[in-house]
Design a protein that fits this description.
- Helix content is about 80%, strand content about 0%.
- The protein is mainly α.
- α1 runs antiparallel to α2.
- The radius of gyration is 21 Å and the shape is rod-shaped.
Length: about 70
């Protein structure tokens, strides 16, 4: 699933949990599913954060006249 699909899934889970007709058992299952989907979202965001850090380091190296090893070009 994409990040956006996971967010949509979380919204659906919350909506179901807020429904008065949802039983306690269903609510617990939905909560567990929500935790799982949240973990997927966090993994995606953390991966994106690391990718951005790497790209920023590469850009900084280009602008400072050094390569990624810290040596001058």
């Amino acid at each position: 699933m994409t990040f956006e699909e996971n967010v949509k899934k979380l919204e659906e889970i919350v909506e179901k949990m807020e429904d008065k007709n949802t039983s306690l058992s269903e609510g617990i299952d939905l909560y567990a599913e929500g935790i799982s989907v949240t973990k997927e979202c966090l993994d995606y965001l953390n991966g994106g954060k690391e990718k951005i850090k790497k790209l920023q380091a590469e850009m900084n190296a280009l602008f400072s006249g050094t390569d990624n090893g810290g040596e001058r070009n």
